[in-house]
Amino acid sequence: MSLQHETRRLPPADPGLLSRALEVAGRLANDAAEVITATAGRDRLTDTVKAHPFDWVTDTDRTLERHTRRVLAAEFPQVPVLGEEYGADEGVHSAPLRWVVDPVDGTANYVSGFPWCAYSLALVDAHGPVVGVIADPSRAQIYAAARGRGVRANGVPVRIAPRPVVGGLVCAELSLERAPGFTARAAAAHTGVRVLGSAALAITQVALGHAVAAVLDRYREWDVAGALCLAAEAGAVVVDARGNPDPLPSEDLVVAVPGALDAVLSWWHAP
Protein backbone atom coordinates (compact mmCIF):
# COMPACT_ATOMS: atom_id res chain seq x y z
CA MET A 1 0.00 0.00 0.00
CA SER A 2 1.36 3.37 -0.96
CA LEU A 3 1.73 5.97 1.75
CA GLN A 4 0.52 9.51 1.15
CA HIS A 5 2.70 12.39 2.30
CA GLU A 6 2.09 16.07 1.93
CA THR A 7 4.37 18.96 2.76
CA ARG A 8 2.92 20.86 5.69
CA ARG A 9 1.77 24.34 4.72
CA LEU A 10 3.41 26.91 6.97
CA PRO A 11 2.07 30.38 7.72
CA PRO A 12 3.68 33.21 5.77
CA ALA A 13 6.43 35.29 7.34
CA ASP A 14 6.77 39.04 7.25
CA PRO A 15 8.17 40.02 3.80
CA GLY A 16 10.40 42.70 5.25
CA LEU A 17 11.85 40.27 7.76
CA LEU A 18 12.54 37.72 5.04
CA SER A 19 14.35 40.22 2.83
CA ARG A 20 16.48 41.58 5.65
CA ALA A 21 17.27 38.15 7.07
CA LEU A 22 18.29 36.84 3.64
CA GLU A 23 20.58 39.81 3.07
CA VAL A 24 22.34 39.50 6.43
CA ALA A 25 22.57 35.70 6.27
CA GLY A 26 23.97 35.91 2.75
CA ARG A 27 26.70 38.31 3.88
CA LEU A 28 27.64 36.03 6.74
CA ALA A 29 27.70 32.99 4.46
CA ASN A 30 30.05 34.77 2.05
CA ASP A 31 32.32 35.75 4.95
CA ALA A 32 32.37 32.15 6.15
CA ALA A 33 33.09 30.75 2.70
CA GLU A 34 36.15 32.97 2.36
CA VAL A 35 37.53 31.92 5.74
CA ILE A 36 36.86 28.20 5.22
CA THR A 37 38.42 28.26 1.75
CA ALA A 38 41.54 29.97 3.08
CA THR A 39 42.05 27.65 6.05
CA ALA A 40 40.70 24.19 5.13
CA GLY A 41 43.31 21.52 5.83
CA ARG A 42 45.53 24.04 7.63
CA ASP A 43 43.56 25.09 10.71
CA ARG A 44 44.53 24.29 14.28
CA LEU A 45 42.42 22.00 16.46
CA THR A 46 41.38 23.53 19.78
CA ASP A 47 39.41 20.53 21.11
CA THR A 48 40.14 17.08 19.71
CA VAL A 49 37.04 15.35 21.02
CA LYS A 50 33.48 16.40 21.81
CA ALA A 51 30.78 13.76 21.37
CA HIS A 52 32.97 11.21 19.57
CA PRO A 53 36.51 10.94 18.14
CA PHE A 54 35.67 12.80 14.90
CA ASP A 55 33.65 15.60 16.53
CA TRP A 56 36.35 18.27 16.53
CA VAL A 57 36.48 22.00 17.17
CA THR A 58 38.88 24.36 15.39
CA ASP A 59 39.81 28.02 15.65
CA THR A 60 37.67 28.61 12.57
CA ASP A 61 34.57 27.06 14.19
CA ARG A 62 34.82 29.47 17.08
CA THR A 63 35.92 32.50 15.08
CA LEU A 64 33.06 32.16 12.60
CA GLU A 65 30.45 31.64 15.29
CA ARG A 66 31.69 34.68 17.23
CA HIS A 67 31.56 36.77 14.04
CA THR A 68 28.06 35.48 13.26
CA ARG A 69 26.84 36.31 16.75
CA ARG A 70 28.32 39.83 16.65
CA VAL A 71 26.64 40.65 13.35
CA LEU A 72 23.30 39.14 14.33
CA ALA A 73 23.33 40.95 17.70
CA ALA A 74 23.79 44.24 15.85
CA GLU A 75 21.23 43.55 13.10
CA PHE A 76 18.61 41.60 15.09
CA PRO A 77 19.14 42.50 18.75
CA GLN A 78 15.86 40.96 19.89
CA VAL A 79 16.47 37.55 18.26
CA PRO A 80 18.51 35.05 20.34
CA VAL A 81 21.04 32.67 18.83
CA LEU A 82 21.56 28.93 19.18
CA GLY A 83 24.98 27.78 17.99
CA GLU A 84 27.10 24.67 18.02
CA GLU A 85 30.13 26.17 19.73
CA TYR A 86 28.66 28.67 22.21
CA GLY A 87 25.28 27.16 22.96
CA ALA A 88 21.97 28.92 23.49
CA ASP A 89 21.32 32.55 24.33
CA GLU A 90 18.96 33.14 27.23
CA GLY A 91 15.35 32.52 26.25
CA VAL A 92 16.20 31.02 22.88
CA HIS A 93 13.68 28.18 23.09
CA SER A 94 10.75 30.38 24.12
CA ALA A 95 11.45 33.27 21.75
CA PRO A 96 9.20 33.74 18.70
CA LEU A 97 12.29 33.71 16.47
CA ARG A 98 15.78 32.29 16.85
CA TRP A 99 18.90 32.14 14.74
CA VAL A 100 20.58 28.73 14.49
CA VAL A 101 24.20 28.51 13.32
CA ASP A 102 26.71 25.77 12.61
CA PRO A 103 29.95 27.56 11.67
CA VAL A 104 31.60 24.49 10.11
CA ASP A 105 29.38 21.50 9.45
CA GLY A 106 31.70 18.62 8.59
CA THR A 107 34.66 19.73 10.71
CA ALA A 108 36.51 16.43 10.34
CA ASN A 109 36.42 16.91 6.57
CA TYR A 110 37.52 20.53 6.95
CA VAL A 111 40.48 19.57 9.15
CA SER A 112 41.58 16.94 6.61
CA GLY A 113 41.15 19.25 3.63
CA PHE A 114 38.40 16.99 2.23
CA PRO A 115 36.15 19.25 0.12
CA TRP A 116 32.82 18.54 1.83
CA CYS A 117 31.97 20.97 4.62
CA ALA A 118 29.61 23.91 4.96
CA TYR A 119 28.53 26.96 6.93
CA SER A 120 24.87 26.79 7.93
CA LEU A 121 22.62 29.57 9.22
CA ALA A 122 18.85 29.51 9.71
CA LEU A 123 16.17 31.76 11.10
CA VAL A 124 13.52 29.62 12.83
CA ASP A 125 10.07 30.43 14.19
CA ALA A 126 7.52 28.31 16.04
CA HIS A 127 6.57 26.55 12.79
CA GLY A 128 10.05 25.70 11.51
CA PRO A 129 12.78 27.29 9.39
CA VAL A 130 11.92 30.70 7.94
CA VAL A 131 15.24 31.42 6.21
CA GLY A 132 18.09 29.05 5.43
CA VAL A 133 21.49 29.84 3.95
CA ILE A 134 24.25 27.29 3.30
CA ALA A 135 27.75 28.18 2.14
CA ASP A 136 29.44 25.39 0.16
CA PRO A 137 32.98 26.77 -0.17
CA SER A 138 34.48 23.89 -2.14
CA ARG A 139 31.97 24.42 -4.94
CA ALA A 140 31.93 28.23 -4.58
CA GLN A 141 28.18 28.15 -3.99
CA ILE A 142 25.82 29.98 -1.66
CA TYR A 143 22.40 28.34 -1.37
CA ALA A 144 19.62 30.50 0.05
CA ALA A 145 15.91 30.00 0.72
CA ALA A 146 13.09 31.79 2.49
CA ARG A 147 9.60 30.60 3.30
CA GLY A 148 7.40 31.01 0.24
CA ARG A 149 10.22 32.40 -1.91
CA GLY A 150 11.89 29.25 -3.20
CA VAL A 151 15.60 28.39 -3.38
CA ARG A 152 18.47 29.99 -5.22
CA ALA A 153 21.97 28.66 -5.85
CA ASN A 154 24.28 31.63 -6.44
CA GLY A 155 21.17 33.56 -7.39
CA VAL A 156 19.79 30.96 -9.83
CA PRO A 157 16.35 29.51 -8.94
CA VAL A 158 16.26 25.79 -8.13
CA ARG A 159 13.25 23.46 -8.20
CA ILE A 160 13.30 19.68 -8.04
CA ALA A 161 11.11 17.25 -9.99
CA PRO A 162 9.63 13.87 -8.94
CA ARG A 163 12.05 10.96 -9.39
CA PRO A 164 12.05 7.24 -8.61
CA VAL A 165 14.73 5.84 -6.34
CA VAL A 166 16.09 3.33 -8.88
CA GLY A 167 19.43 4.53 -10.15
CA GLY A 168 19.49 7.45 -7.73
CA LEU A 169 21.64 8.34 -4.73
CA VAL A 170 20.68 8.71 -1.09
CA CYS A 171 22.87 10.82 1.22
CA ALA A 172 22.98 9.21 4.65
CA GLU A 173 24.33 10.37 7.99
CA LEU A 174 23.42 7.40 10.14
CA SER A 175 24.60 5.69 13.29
CA LEU A 176 26.67 2.52 12.96
CA GLU A 177 23.69 0.47 14.14
CA ARG A 178 21.44 1.65 11.34
CA ALA A 179 23.78 2.24 8.44
CA PRO A 180 24.58 -1.34 7.32
CA GLY A 181 20.96 -2.53 7.06
CA PHE A 182 19.74 0.61 5.38
CA THR A 183 22.59 0.55 2.86
CA ALA A 184 21.97 -3.11 2.02
CA ARG A 185 18.25 -2.55 1.41
CA ALA A 186 18.96 0.49 -0.77
CA ALA A 187 21.51 -1.48 -2.81
CA ALA A 188 18.97 -4.25 -3.36
CA ALA A 189 16.69 -1.58 -4.88
CA HIS A 190 19.52 -0.38 -7.14
CA THR A 191 20.00 2.84 -5.22
CA GLY A 192 23.39 4.07 -4.05
CA VAL A 193 24.12 5.40 -0.56
CA ARG A 194 26.74 8.06 0.13
CA VAL A 195 28.03 8.94 3.61
CA LEU A 196 30.23 12.04 3.33
CA GLY A 197 30.16 13.67 6.75
CA SER A 198 28.04 16.81 6.53
CA ALA A 199 24.37 16.78 7.49
CA ALA A 200 23.77 20.21 5.91
CA LEU A 201 25.24 19.21 2.56
CA ALA A 202 23.49 15.82 2.61
CA ILE A 203 20.09 17.52 2.79
CA THR A 204 21.17 20.22 0.34
CA GLN A 205 21.87 17.58 -2.32
CA VAL A 206 18.18 16.70 -2.27
CA ALA A 207 17.21 20.37 -2.60
CA LEU A 208 19.50 20.63 -5.63
CA GLY A 209 18.14 17.46 -7.25
CA HIS A 210 21.46 15.61 -7.01
CA ALA A 211 20.14 12.99 -4.56
CA VAL A 212 16.70 11.41 -4.32
CA ALA A 213 16.75 11.45 -0.51
CA ALA A 214 18.71 12.13 2.64
CA VAL A 215 18.35 10.18 5.89
CA LEU A 216 19.76 11.28 9.24
CA ASP A 217 19.74 10.32 12.87
CA ARG A 218 21.52 11.65 15.97
CA TYR A 219 21.84 15.21 14.69
CA ARG A 220 21.33 18.57 16.35
CA GLU A 221 19.16 21.47 15.21
CA TRP A 222 22.13 23.50 13.96
CA ASP A 223 23.17 20.62 11.70
CA VAL A 224 19.94 20.63 9.71
CA ALA A 225 17.83 23.79 10.13
CA GLY A 226 19.27 25.80 7.24
CA ALA A 227 19.30 22.91 4.79
CA LEU A 228 15.75 21.86 5.68
CA CYS A 229 14.56 25.30 4.63
CA LEU A 230 16.28 24.76 1.26
CA ALA A 231 14.72 21.31 0.85
CA ALA A 232 11.18 22.40 1.66
CA GLU A 233 11.35 25.42 -0.62
CA ALA A 234 12.77 23.31 -3.47
CA GLY A 235 9.76 20.99 -3.30
CA ALA A 236 11.17 18.09 -1.27
CA VAL A 237 9.14 16.27 1.37
CA VAL A 238 10.44 16.52 4.94
CA VAL A 239 9.22 13.94 7.46
CA ASP A 240 10.24 12.33 10.70
CA ALA A 241 11.21 8.67 10.71
CA ARG A 242 7.56 7.62 11.15
CA GLY A 243 6.64 9.45 7.96
CA ASN A 244 4.88 12.38 9.63
CA PRO A 245 5.38 15.73 7.88
CA ASP A 246 7.54 17.97 10.06
CA PRO A 247 9.53 21.01 8.83
CA LEU A 248 12.12 20.55 11.61
CA PRO A 249 12.10 17.03 13.07
CA SER A 250 13.84 16.83 16.43
CA GLU A 251 15.06 13.25 16.11
CA ASP A 252 15.37 11.10 12.97
CA LEU A 253 14.44 12.62 9.63
CA VAL A 254 13.99 11.75 5.98
CA VAL A 255 14.06 14.29 3.15
CA ALA A 256 13.05 13.04 -0.29
CA VAL A 257 12.07 14.23 -3.73
CA PRO A 258 8.44 13.50 -4.64
CA GLY A 259 8.15 9.89 -5.74
CA ALA A 260 11.01 8.56 -3.59
CA LEU A 261 9.78 8.83 -0.03
CA ASP A 262 7.78 5.59 0.31
CA ALA A 263 10.70 3.43 -0.80
CA VAL A 264 13.18 5.18 1.49
CA LEU A 265 10.87 4.87 4.49
CA SER A 266 10.40 1.18 3.76
CA TRP A 267 14.17 0.64 3.92
CA TRP A 268 14.29 2.57 7.18
CA HIS A 269 11.58 0.47 8.83
CA ALA A 270 12.41 -2.97 7.44
CA PRO A 271 13.34 -5.46 10.18
UniProtKB/TrEMBL annotation:
It comes from the Bacteria. GO terms for molecular function: inositol monophosphate 1-phosphatase activity; metal ion binding. GO terms for biological process: inositol metabolic process; phosphatidylinositol phosphate biosynthetic process; signal transduction. Keywords: Hydrolase, Magnesium, Metal-binding. Its cofactor is Mg(2+). Gene3D superfamilies: 3.40.190.80, Fructose-1,6-Bisphosphatase, subunit A, domain 1. It catalyses: a myo-inositol phosphate + H2O = myo-inositol + phosphate. Mg(2+) binds at residues 84, 102, 105, 223. InterPro entries: Inositol_monoP_metal-BS, Inositol_monophosphatase-like, Inositol_monophosphatase_CS. It holds the Pfam family Inositol_P. The keyword Metal-binding applies. Its EC number is 3.1.3.25. PANTHER family: INOSITOL MONOPHOSPHATASE, INOSITOL-1-MONOPHOSPHATASE-RELATED. This is inositol-phosphate phosphatase. It comes from Pseudonocardia hydrocarbonoxydans.
